[in-house]
Design a protein that fits this description.
It is built from one helix and no strands. It is mainly alpha-helical.
């Protein structure tokens, strides 16, 4: 009789462990999926950040070119 109780208890414990394992694996997969999504957003953010920096550099160059043109125009006006 005690053998039956022990084996039944072990069987229940194994089933509970398998259920916990399944829940753990499901949670682990969800965490991995979310982690992958976060990495994707970080990559997109880095691309946007790089583009903003590049455009900022181009804008600074543009401003310098405009300033040079203004100085050239002033020089020509003083020569006239």
């Amino acid at each position: 009789m005690q053998e039956a109780l022990k084996s039944g208890s072990i069987g229940m414990t194994i089933k509970a462990c398998e259920k916990e394992k399944t829940l753990f694996e499901t949670t682990l997969n969800k965490v991995k999926h979310i982690s992958d999504e976060i990495q994707s957003y970080i990559s997109k953010f880095d691309s946007v950040k790089d583009e903003i920096n590049e455009r900022g550099k181009k804008f600074e160059t543009y401003k310098m070119e405009i300033e040079n043109k203004k100085l050239q125009i002033q020089l020509l006006e003083t020569e006239i």
